[in-house]
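Review the following:
>
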Amino acid sequence: MNFKIHLTFLILFSSFLFAEIKGTVMDQSTDEPLQGVNIIGEKTGTATNESGEFSIDVPPGTELGFSHIGYHSISQSAQNGMSVEMSPAVIKSGEIIVRAGLSDESLQKTTASVTVFTANDIRESGADHFQVLIDQIPNLNWAGGTSRPRYFQIRGIGERSHYFGEGPPNFSVGFVMDDMDLSGLGMVGQLYDLDQIEIFKGPQSSVYGPNAMAGLISMRSTDPPDHFEMKSSTNFGSDNHYGGSSVMNVRLMKYMNMRLTGVYNYSDGFRENVSQKITDSNKLEEAFSRMKLSYNPNNRLSILTTLIYAELKNGYDVWAPDNNTDFITYSNDKGKDSQRTYGYSLRAQFKASENLNITSISSFTETDLVHAYDGDWADSAYWYETHDFDPAVEGWAYEFYDKNERNRANLSQEIRLSMGSIIMGGYFKHLIEQDEAMGHLYGGAATDAINHYDFLATAGYAQYGVDLTPSFKLKANVRFENNSIKYEGTTQGLNDNWENIELPLIHFDIDHSMLGYRASLHYLKDKFTSYYGSISQGYKSGGVNQHPYLTDASRPYDPEFIQNSEVGLKRTTKKYQTQLSAFYSLRKDQQVSVSSQQVEGDPNSFLFYTANAGSGSVQGFEWENLLNVSSNLSMDASLGYLKTWVDKFPYFASEGVEAIGGDREAAMSPKVTGSFGVHFKNNSGIFGLVQMSFKDEYYFSDSHIQKSKPYTLLNINIGNSFGKTTATIWIRNAMDERYTTRGFYFGLIPPDYPDQLWKSYGDPRQIGVTIDYTF
């Protein structure tokens, strides 16, 4: 009897000693299961499977060690059914988290070419607008023609303008601020109180849709913390520049915080208008405000609301009929490039269970744009004194004016479900735009016009990631999208007797379905080094040409698709951070936009036309590096190389004359872009930055062969922090370089109107002071 009791006790005791403990290990930041986590007990060990699950024979209460490359090692007491969360490791040099994707992930693990500016990077640069940072980003360019950069090109793909008659508001480069889609509205790129800027290069359509065929620019402002904070900034400088910014953060109630930001900026615009005898015809007068509310009642629910209001009362006067580099203009009609935008976004995240997270992103923006300019760039006195154009002799005044007013309302809703390594979602967007214009429109065929676009997009997407081994991860996503556009255009013109007549009314609908996808393989060699390869397909929606006399067959153009292959390397250590990517892309049904002067002697008689030009290609690489020389000194460098090609395509060069374009590099595609910077700071608060950037020559347009010239810009910041105050002296374009930001080729000068290149120039040297104070 005693023997049986002892035997039973021994069996129970043995089962306790060697109990099977089961559990799951998850990524704390993404709630995805972790494969390949090493789990060590006292005398035994195991690893998690692809679902993050494990089992180990140890007694309950035994200390288990959990370790995985790229994650903090932790210890927990063994319990059956235990759930373990591991947080990604942050190395001392500062890990960067990319937040614009379907889920947050470290830059080291991002399988794409991404340039990131952190809040500290922005602060050290002394930049107040995204325009100042553009030249530091490899293979990113922008087109002039507006008071602030509005249209961007990534890897040679992107719009150069959106004048009246250039089609619907479809863009190749997305511009997103705090979950609000502001593509084509990049003038609102104020940087004060921004937490991070992310520039994705290459097609991102499988995540962001048709406005990201070339890439995406994402700006995210600082979220409200749970404590009081107040800061202000004052700046002034040459060109009658002055401005101020402030931010205040308060705790409204338990779990709810609010952050208020306000920005005002003014400068004359570096132009002397001798016709109007003023120096502010090209002024920048910009006001921007933002309010963020966060509500986090528990660890399962978080709500973040952002509201913005921007009022940009900018002038526009950058062209001169003598192409002078002294920034003297002669226009007698005031130009205007204004933008008023208000909008909101609401991001709600709910953890429904251990394996299910629900994210809702709602946004709405409404924007009023006015773009107006003197079409002949001078007054009658200039044309008479310089080119002998006498209205009394000619019988007409050489006087043209163009004005375009645009209203755009954009509503979007996205629902996203994250279930471990699976993400699924749906997307809806309704955009309405109305354009009103007066001037010499559609190549002189119309004097007044109103266009109305009704744009509807619906999409569904899915993503799946799996750890093939502890070091190899495969991720794939797909997006199916349908876009429909309803267009209505009414126009007025003049008959042979100079009487107002109604031109043909246009009703035209198009509907397109598009597929985007991306598959990537990530290899984490160690916690410092990773490699990746990816294939993807991006797309851009089709559109409608607006000219009233086009046939139905010539009016629409089809979506464009791009297929991209990319490989990359990323390495981060205490000493340096580097990333290198190489890519090759094929463009199918490439959309080519051309503009051509139709009537000699009419500088506003431009016909805008978009067509599918067959195929094209893009290839090159991007390299970025940060070297920490010492605790006080660091250096950064970037280099982009780009080789593009556009197939031949026909277009109307002038009335009744057809020309051939293409068969060469794409417009706005500099072959080489690069930058180099030296950062210095010491314990006494003194800091400095010398930043140099280079941009190679590029074609201004797809419809002529005129090119820019290579240029180099130098920016310098020197400052000192003492107590709660920081004072910075900054110099932009320190070498006072004359460089072109936009070029047109047409006939302007009477009486023969020979075609020639016309240039607008970037800002000359500007010197200023910024004083920051923390309360």
